[in-house]
Amino acid sequence: MTDPAAITKDPLLTLTNVSSSYGAIKVLKDLSLTVGRGEIVCLIGSNGAGKTTALRCISGINKISGGSIHFAGDSITTIPAHRIVERGLAQVPEGRLIFPRLTILENLRLGAFTCHNAKEIADGIDHAFHLFPVLGERRHQTGGTLSGGEQQMLAICRALMSKPTMLLMDEPSMGVAPLLTLKIFETIRTLNNDGLAVLLVEQNAHLALKLAHRGYVLETGKIVAHDLASNLLNDPKVREAYLGE
After folding, report:
1. What pLDDT does 105 receive?
2. In this structure, are residues 63 and 20 in contact, taking their beta carbons and an 8 Å threshold?
3. What whole-number distance in Å separates Cα of residue 242 and Cα of residue 55?
4. 107, CA 20 to 30 Å: which among 41, 93, 144, 231?
5. Measured between alpha carbons, how far is 201 from 197 in angstroms, rounded to an integer?
6. Distances from the Cα of 243 to the Cα of 67, 174, 175, angstroms
7. CA distance to 196, 202, 211, 226, per residue, from 234 (Å)
8. Which has more confidence, 97 or 104?
9. Is the pTM of this model over 0.85?
10. What is d(CA 226, CA 34) in angstroms, rounded to the nearest whole number?
């Protein structure tokens, strides 16, 4: 397969031999990957492979026991999660984790905790409503009353309020109706076309590989394959294991 180091000319995020454990259980085992500036990279694998743990380590929620993580040329291996957001790396978590008793507007404003400029916050809210007009129409509705797809839209826009250069996205299609899933993935492509880098964890491997530029396959905490997404999409082993073919 193609060496990803030869593909990624300008790395924005680099994980080098990252290990992480839950107690005595080692979940990540010398994980290495890169995401280039303006690139969409997907991380696919079965349940329990360590995909969510990888994202949580990058965003500073989980501590790593070995290796290093660099973002925009600087080490973020040991800095707190909120400082990582300030550097331009935001996460859209699995299950969305919006604030259900707060309105759409209140959720968005909380996402702008790194910003202290009222105009920039207002511009961010306008951008959110441009991306997903339904959020603007329901701006005073509480998050818990939204559908799964609408909550996912809100979670994405809340992350965008911090003006990131890169998004970590964990299972954006989970619990979302097919038509809204397509809308969300179209929006990810639009954001990427505007220069946003994305590391995408997605159980729907076919959808992820169709969207991404490159992909990594994770099994029991180890990368077992990496290549251009189009090559992985046509790889017989990947198709059999993750595409049900």
Report:
1. 96
2. yes
3. 20
4. 41
5. 13
6. 31, 16, 19
7. 26, 18, 14, 13
8. 104
9. yes
10. 11
